[in-house]
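Bit of a strange request maybe. I'm writing a small parser for structure token strings and I need a real example to test against, not something I typed by hand. Could someone generate the tokens for this chain?
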Amino acid sequence: MDEIAKQVEEFAELQFTDAEIATICQIDASKYRDCIDRGRLKAEAEVRRMTLELAKKGDTASRKVFMELNKNAKKRQLGS
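Reply from user aminoacidic:
Good idea to test on real output. This should exercise your parser:
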């Protein structure tokens, strides 16, 4: 992965919009779609990981959030 692609992915992890990433990196964001998607998914995965850890430690709000994530994942898996 080249340096621009790494930067694009990092900014996507920080949840910048495609337009903001394009401006910051001076790129055509459509050419870096995979990097943007990967960065956003990596950030989402980290938040889910932290939510699970807090839920395991007994945090009620985190348990509710994680169970909702679980329910939504099952719906997506079943195509509902």
